[in-house]
Amino acid sequence: MANWRYLCAMSLLLLPLSLQQSPSQASDTLTANQQLSGNQKLISQDGNFALGFFQPAVEGLNGKWYIGIWYNKIPVQTVVWVANREKPISDPASSNLIISDDGNLVLLENHSKSQTWSTNIKNNTRVTSTVAMLLDTGNLVVTYDSNTSIALWQSFDDLTNTWLPGNKLSRNKTTGVAKRMISWRDRSDPAPGMFSLELDPNGSSQYVLLWNNSVLYWASGNWTGNSFSGVPELSTTNSGYTFQFVDNDEETYFTYTAKNDALRFLRNFVDVSGLSQASVWIEASQAWNTFFTQPKFKCSVYGMCGENSICSENDASSCSCLKGFIENNPNNWELDDHTSGCRRHVPLKCGNNGSVNTEQDKFYLIGSVKLPDNAHSTDAANVHACELTCLNNCSCIAYAHNGTCLVWYNHLMNMRDNFGGSSDSIFIRLAASELPNSGTKKWWIAVIIIGGLIIVPGSFGVTILYFSHRRGRRISGMNQGDGSLISFKYRDLQFITRNFSERLGAGSFGSVFRGVLPNTTVVAVKKLEGLHQGDKQFRAEVSTIGSIHHINLIRLLGFCSEGAKRLLVYECMPNGSLDKHLFGSSSTTLSWKIRYQIAVGIAKALAYLHEECRDCIIHCDIKPQNILLDASFVPKVADFGLAKLLGRDFSRVLTSMRGTVGYLAPEWISGGAITTKADVFSYGMMLFEIISGKRNLEHTDSRMETFFPVLAARKLLQGEVMTLLGKELMNGVPERELERACKVACWCVQYDDSSRPTMGEIVKVLEGVIDVEMPPIPRYLEAIAECSESRILFP
Questions:
Q1: CA–CA separation, 388 vs 612, rounded Å?
Q2: Between the CA atoms of 179, 183, 184 and 190, what dihedral angle is there, to the nearest 10 degrees?
Q3: Per-residue DSSP letters for 618-657?
Q4: How far apart are CA 197 and CA 271, in angstroms?
Q5: Which PANTHER family match (predicted)?
């Protein structure tokens, strides 16, 4: 009896604690008598999402904590929703997420002393039966425990920066309230940033990106019934996703879902840079793959770089302060938030009372730019008069004259570097100390003269040493610049290639020779043939090519232009060209994993050239000989942009290729227009060779023995793609990847170029982001296969 009384007493003492228990480890629900604190989490039933306290991964341990939802099974921290994004807490161990007495889900800091965040549910009459549930969709719902189909509040109605499948981007027609995605302030701070995405506030059937909730800088275009006019890839017929636009009496909304489980980790978000992006988690690479970005040009984002800065499409950093200016907030810039812009390093000398001292301030010229926004036009007959107009106003900080005098006051916004080949120039007003004149350097002359008098006695021996090594030192010095292209002398290239004695290969554009710079860097020197451009045009085109950088494009280091001698200097790849490994004398048999990696890398490079460069570049000569491999067998597309360099003479250079059934698209033969789809065709023919490890066309006594593309198309339709592989690849090849590659190749080589996919779509298919339908057998290739001699169709 005594023991029984003891147990009863203890149960009464422990009752208050049991009413404040934590949810079990695998629970997806928080009830009224539970709390969440410290490292405790809610986990959705399928285990894909978790809710709990977190710190942004970029930030580190600085004492700021948030309640949020993230992907539970992905090793890269990816937060999709934040509750207290403007009010971080300092200690999750002493904070609690609970169901309050009025039925709201609330966050209490410092042992229930203060309320930091709440769902703010109004008019809830059944407060004792409220629970919070984390659903498999990533949606956190506050509902009745007796009827979970009624959502009193849900995180899907409280978007932060991420839009998940199944959620709506909507506008309520009665209240006018819009669900709006707002970017994080920077990569460590989830507080609302400057960029947002929502349905058009003016009521049209499009969605828009806004800066500061006021300036529209991108729009999707109106809904056409199947897609948005400006974003045709977001259509109801998209292979990988189902997109839907609904316009009824109550609301207008846009939503999307994934068609298969492989794409379950899919998200659309507004980045801190102001870009709207969509990405999918690729399990094989353990990384997010971005397959959709708008605007296409990052510098189109209004205010991305803030005031008094310049944006560059080609630079990885995008934003930089103008000369004479420094970052307003360097810490934010480090975290990719540039919206605070730049401030003057040295103030102007213009008087605070409006007086002007024209001797104190000067102007710095910046050429080839898109001029900033908000220019004011004034009457000035010439450049000099325009300059005086600006100097006579203390608020004027820049001017330009392109037939009209334009001036800017107080700050500069949205200046872009060399946008679309622009030739506009602008003069930036700076303090005189920022632009010292030549007179301040006169003391250098005295130093040089005195130093010369001291050094002359030993100059003879130094001179001999100089001339004996002058060429090596001069070339070495060229390679110590700022990363820009080197302009080589022809005799320099003769020296580093040992008078072009070691030829690495030859192609349609000329021969390639091995060279070694004095700093031991191995280079490939290409002697261009059949080129008759003027020197100025050649240098301009080379400069454009040299500014293009991609991990799967060969890097151009320099060039030579002396009369008819035109040469290009590239980085040299240790594993040579792809053709040597596929069907050459190389002892290395490429595994399927490496082959697939090569196929994806080439596709990414061509997609970049076609779709992401300021000017579309068509390669025109895609084949294994023009794919180089680095030490890790990462592919590098070579000779890109040479078609642009060769111009009208290019067709003559290619005539030698017409004698072989190789990589030329039918339009080359028929005389049709050459577009990016010609590269797609060539890529498809090459992809067949990557799959098989053999040339598509093998000749025996000038007769066609095997034509692999037709064989692959037939086996694909029969469901027998695994029989296409040689013995060396029979084991360890994922059938889904092989089928995917064969489908892509067959679509690429369709006769009608409109039936071929874009390179961007090819990348998505190969990476498993979208699926693709079964292609038809390319009938004209089938006809070629039935011919006894290839020359019948290709005289």
A1: 41
A2: 10
A3: -----SGGGEEE-TT--EEE-STTHHHHHGGGHHHHHGGG
A4: 11
A5: OS07G0415500 PROTEIN (PTHR47974), RECEPTOR-LIKE SERINE_THREONINE-PROTEIN KINASE (PTHR47974:SF19)
Question: In this predicted model, which residue has the larger pLDDT, 622 or 57?
Answer: 622
Helix 592-607 vs helix 735-748: crossing angle, to nearest 10:
40
**Phi-psi map region of 530: left, alpha, beta (phi>0 left; psi -120 to 50 alpha):** left
Residue 597: both structure tokens together: 């990696």
Residue 221 corresponds to which tokens in the numbers above? 């275009």
Measured from the Cβ of residue 141, the count of other Cβ atoms closer than 10 Å reads 22
159-296 shares its CATH topology with 472-571: no
Q: Is pLDDT of 435 > 50?
A: yes
CB 56 within 8 A of CB 86: no
Is-contact 162 278, C-beta < 8 A? no
- What is the Cα–Cα distance from 171 to 253, expressed in whole angstroms? 6
Residue 96 CA to residue 52 CA, distance in Å, equals 10
pLDDT of residue 533: 60
Sheet containing 79-82: order of strands = 41-43, 49-54, 66-71, 79-82
Is CATH 1.10.1740.10 what the domain over 578-792 is classified as, yes or no? Answer: no
Inter-residue contact 509 to 516 (CB < 8 Å) = no
Nearest Cα to Cα of residue 299 among 312, 315, 316, 309: 312
CA distances from 777 to 121, 623, 746, 747 (A): 60, 22, 7, 9
pLDDT at residue 115 tops 50: yes
The three-state DSSP-derived secondary structure of 691-752 is: HHCCCCEEEECCEEEEEHHHHHHHHHHHCCHHHHCCHHHCCCCCHHHHHHHHHHHHHHCCCC
Tell me the three state secondary structure of residue 230.
coil
pLDDT value for 417: 80
CATH class of this structure's domain 16-158: mainly beta
**If you average pLDDT over every residue of the chain, what do you get?**
79
Give percent of the chain with pLDDT exceeding 90. 34
Predicted local confidence at residue 6, as pLDDT: 35
Annotated binding site for ATP: 527
| CATH topology (fold) of 159-296 | Agglutinin, subunit A (2.90.10)
- Distances, alpha carbon 780 to alpha carbons 299, 493, 688, 786, in Å: 44, 46, 16, 10
Average pLDDT, stretch 551-574?
A: 87
Domain ranges of the chain: 16-158, 159-296, 309-436, 472-571, 578-792
pLDDT at 453 over 50: no
pLDDT tens digit sequence for 593-643: 999 999 999 999 999 888 887 778 888 889 998 899 988 899 999 887 666
pLDDT value, residue 275: 93
Kind plus residue range of the DSSP H or E element containing 430: strand 424-431
**590 three-class SS:** coil
Six-digit token pair at 50? Answer: 């978790």
Residue 672: C-alpha distances to residues 62, 400, 414, 675 (Å): 62, 44, 41, 9
Query: Each residue of 761-776: pLDDT tens digit?
Result: 999 999 888 888 898 8
How far, CA to CA in Å, does 123 sit from each of 104, 126, 127, 285, 348? 11, 9, 10, 49, 59
Spatial distance between the Cα atoms of 288 and 271, rounded to a whole number of angstroms: 14
Quote the CA–CA distance of 272 and 261 in Å, as a whole number. 29
Phi, psi of 472, deg, nearest 5: -60, -40
pLDDT at 59: 53
Secondary structure class of 506 (helix, strand, coil): strand
- Give residue 771's pLDDT: 83
Strands 41-43 and 319-321: unpaired
> Kindly report the CA angle at 724 between 722 and 729, in degrees rounded to 5?
70
Long-range contacts of 203-212 (CB under 8 A, 24+ apart): 205/245, 205/247, 205/252, 206/230, 207/169, 207/254, 209/270, 209/274, 209/276, 209/294, 209/295, 209/301, 211/274, 211/301, 211/302, 211/303, 212/303
Q: Which residue numbers are catalytic?
A: 621
| 708-718 and 676-692 helices, crossing angle to 10° | 80
User: Is the domain covering 472-571 a CATH 3.40.50.300 domain?
Assistant: no
pTM: 0.61
Q: What angle do CA 181, 186, 189 make, to 5 degrees?
A: 85
